[in-house]
Specification:
The protein is an all-alpha fold. The chain is built from 2 helices and no strands. The longest helix has 83 residues. Keywords: Membrane, Transmembrane, Transmembrane helix.
Length: 155
């Protein structure tokens, strides 16, 4: 009778230790993968958003300066126009002003397209980085589970 109880106790102990090892390894793998993915994605998002903000602010500053210069030119030219009162000169200067404004608008559109492409590239890079993190984490989890399984088999 004692032998049966002892064997039963050993079997229950082995079963419980196997369950505990499995639970611990699963919890560890989950925690590690969540921390890794969170840290990596947060760092990437921070770096890339800082780059984006810097690029956007520089582009915006350029556009604003261009518009300001165009407005300043328009004011100067309007003053000259009032002084000269010549219809021919007025036509030429208005054409120059409209051309400058169109150039500014086209540059703004081009810059918007470039920023959009840059954002798409950065988002794709972030997604690839997260995917790589998940793959690496899965690989680590597989290695840990194989090590736990190997350890169980040796016992």
């Amino acid at each position: 009778m004692n032998t049966i109880v002892t064997i039963t106790n050993i079997m229950i102990t082995n079963l419980l230790s196997n369950i505990l090892v499995t639970i611990k390894s699963n919890i560890l793998v989950t925690i590690k993968s969540n921390i890794l993915v969170t840290i990596k994605s947060n760092i990437l998002v921070t770096i890339k958003s800082n780059i984006l903000v810097t690029i956007k602010s520089n582009i915006l500053a350029t556009i604003i300066v261009t518009i300001m210069v165009t407005n300043l030119l328009a004011t100067i030219l309007a003053t000259i126009l009032v002084t000269i009162k010549s219809n021919i000169l007025a036509t030429i200067i208005v054409n120059i002003m409209v051309t400058n404004l169109m150039a500014t608008i086209l540059v703004s559109i081009l810059v918007s397209i470039l920023v959009t492409n840059l954002m798409a590239t950065i988002l794709a890079t972030i997604l690839v980085s997260i995917l790589v993190s998940i793959l690496v984490t899965n690989l680590l989890a597989t290695i840990i589970l194989l090590a736990v399984d190997l350890r169980r088999r040796r016992k």
